[in-house]
């Protein structure tokens, strides 16, 4: 999309023109998704972050700022959403890299420790309330996405997100009491390899 087309489209969106919004969406979805995917290394999370950006733009269309380059605005907005995404998940690239390094350095003994860590993790999950336990297990162990869990349980995706959030907080509090650093490292690896 050319710069003058971008600005014209942007102005029409601010006036509530759905056709212009669709044109913007179609013109930038793929590039934004690819950027998010390269950053997150997770297709579903990347799709969700980009989708949330476009929903936000449409909901706030009347208050969108004046911009000189729509594409630059979109990528900065996406970058901010990606940073928020990492903050919400309370994980940093450093922690993920450390977990990956632990995985790469696995010896036979480390694999046993990882299996021990998964046992500890599963025992902690078993202490969660039944519905949270089900949702947490489906998400982390069965690797189902939020929509799949919502369909299976009959709950809304937001309810599933809420249950995962509360369960994750309870797990974090429970796991912070673990004394064995190798078990702790294995638990971190087990959690991150599922995401």
UniProtKB/TrEMBL annotation:
Instruction: Spell out the InterPro entries in the cross-references.
Output: RNA_pol_sigma-70-like (IPR039425), RNA_pol_sigma-70_dom (IPR014284), RNA_pol_sigma70_r2 (IPR007627), RNA_pol_sigma70_r4_t2 (IPR013249), RNA_pol_sigma_r2 (IPR013325), RNA_pol_sigma_r3/r4-like (IPR013324), WH-like_DNA-bd_sf (IPR036388)
Q: Which domain of life, per UniProt?
A: Bacteria
**Domain RNA polymerase sigma-70 region: residue ranges:** 27-90
The segment(s) forming the RNA polymerase sigma factor 70 region 4 type domain are: 121-171
| NCBIfam families attached to this UniProt entry | sigma70-ECF (TIGR02937)
Q: Which family does it belong to?
A: Belongs to the sigma-70 factor family. ECF subfamily.
Q: Which UniProt keywords apply?
A: Sigma factor, Transcription, Transcription regulation
Would you tell me the protein name for this molecule?
Sigma-70 family RNA polymerase sigma factor
Instruction: Specify whether Transferase is a keyword of the entry.
Output: no
The record, for Pfam families, names: Sigma70_r2 (PF04542), Sigma70_r4_2 (PF08281)
